[in-house]
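Blinded run. Sample ID left blank on purpose so nobody reads anything into the name before looking at the predicted structure. Input follows.
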Amino acid sequence: MASIFTKIINGDIPCHKVAEDNNHLAFLDIMPLKMGHVLVIPKKEVDNIFDLNPSELADLHIFAQTVAKAIEKSIFCKKVGVVVIGLEVPHAHIHLIPIMSVSDIDFSQEKLKPSIDELKATALLISQNIEK
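Blinded prediction complete.
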């Protein structure tokens, strides 16, 4: 059965896309820890990020780097935190979260509930800062 992320890749479920290439997709988390929280995924459906072959894993991180730099240009933060947990959705993914402190990456804290308009505006802002 396809993961929710595969359904997003296939266009069966909408997302607030930030960046995409032939092998990767980056989109906003709809219940983010901080505004600008982006999920970066390989289009290849694999549960464990470390089951990607070495070149796929490297390419995913290079794609994530491009997205992280766009987040830094778009969202006020000290850094973009990087987290790989892999328990909530059985599809490899990287969380990129604009942070001011370590506590901003506490997944036990209450998630934000931004409006669709806020998500659209944030996705547009970040996508406009993706270096081609």
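Unblinding after everyone has recorded impressions. The chain has three helices and five strands.
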